[in-house]
Amino acid sequence: MQQNASAELWNPDLAPTTAAQRTWRWYHFAALWVGMVMCIPAYTLSASLIESGMSGWQAVWTVFLANAIVLVPMLLIGHAGTKYGIPYAVLARTSFGTSGAKLPALMRAIVACGWYGIQTWFGGSMIYTLLGVMNGAPIGGDPIAGLGINIAQLLCFLGFWAIQLYFIVHGIESIRKLETYTAPLKIAICFVLLWWVYERAGGFGPLLDRPSAFVAGGPKEGQFWQVFWPSLTAMIGFWATLALNIPDFTRFAKTQRDQVIGQSVGLPVPMGLLAALAVIVTSATVVLYGKALWDPVDLASRMEGIAVLVALIVLLVDTVSVNLAANLVGPAYDFSALAPRAISYRSGGYITAGLALVMMPWKILESTQNYIFTWLVGYSALLGPIAGILIVDYYLVRKTELDVAQMYRDDGIYSYKNGWNMAAVVAFVAGVAPNIPGFLNAAFPASFPDVGDTFKTIYTYAWFVGVAIAAVVYGAMMKGHRVPALAARHS
């Protein structure tokens, strides 16, 4: 197996042999996931299902199921990272070609830049809220022309952006340390928050006992499946980016057992628990404040005394760790893969941070009627086909056997025709195309009001449709493709 020299990123013991050392390796992967799961968008995403009409337990199980489903492609694609020590952008060369791999790398990188900016905006909003609480009144003034935010919001956003820049400058090892040591803190804070709301509210509130809106006589009677499927797709879309670039992390695992156990323990369970936390805490806010508060920043701002400061600082640390691990590492590698000689990993990080500024994330949130479902389902339609192609190529076409050295040759076995494998390009387009009308209608209903119900239904299952169509088309076009004899075998 070819191992990168930086193999100690998520696995600092290069040759562990004892049970304690193996547990430490699994902990690194689990800590990575716990660190990324415990974040504001995941919290609000879980809580939003209640607003859609689900009961508390329906929301929790929907979240758990979605994460169990998306875990499958993560484990399948992550296998190549551990076996060959290669990142996502390099793995994509086996299916898309040495030049064609820039297409999926760029798709994933652009989505990640959008998320990096959104998370940075959330972080800046927390600083803005904290300063307003300390000041005793909201700060800022009139919105700046062309930007739509006031000067205080802009400065808070730039301040949080600068905080994250420290970790880009100091490299990927600083991110690993941040994730490793903040994961237990986040778990502890969750239990403290539960205790706080229980004590203040005298219980966990009425929402836990409230029935689903879809039951007989309910305001949305018989509409459960109409809400469930787009919600499930949105939840899967939340991790669709990491389902692709998971080799960026698993490449540092010592064994397949490490990455399988670490991901299986670290993703579905914490995400399900966070969903339960969101439902319970939000239920208690009805008792405390007379209405359901889905935004944890809003909730933190209503606390009293030192609790406000502590809560917002914890949320700030949480947002930094999530954003760096989930939305920086992947695109940094992707941009580096576009021009390896000119763009290093650190330079890729600078590009990611820069594009996050240019994209003006508050505009992204402002321009969609429902950013959670439109944003998540929309880009899951874009990334799902890539996952289908990678899985079929690695398991059915290559039988998990790759030649790493050939991936770096312009005239090697993965160069196809002029560096492009048109089978992958055609499969990608075929997987994305059916979802385009539904996306346009969801994102810009006033401009595209006449999209048919069939396309709207297809878009409801966007990730599933994209994965299935691209996998079938790619498998059919590559059927009979002669895989060249490998120059070397890797264990």
Q: Nutshell version of this structure?
A:
By secondary structure, this protein is mainly alpha-helical. The protein has helices at 19-37, 40-51, 56-84, 88-91, 93-96, 102-135, 151-169, 172-201, 224-238, 240-245, 247-250, 256-266, 268-289, 296-301, 306-327, 329-338, 345-358, 361-367, 371-397, 404-407, 422-432, 436-443, 453-460, 462-478.
Protein topology:
Elements: H1 19-37, H2 40-51, H3 56-84, H4 88-91, H5 93-96, H6 102-135, H7 151-169, H8 172-201, H9 224-238, H10 240-245, H11 247-250, H12 256-266, H13 268-289, H14 296-301, H15 306-327, H16 329-338, H17 345-358, H18 361-367, H19 371-397, H20 404-407, H21 422-432, H22 436-443, H23 453-460, H24 462-478
Helix pairs in contact: 1-8, 1-12, 1-15, 2-3, 2-13, 3-9, 3-12, 3-13, 3-19, 6-7, 6-15, 6-16, 6-17, 6-18, 6-19, 7-17, 8-13, 8-15, 9-19, 12-13, 16-17, 19-21, 19-22, 19-24, 21-24, 22-23
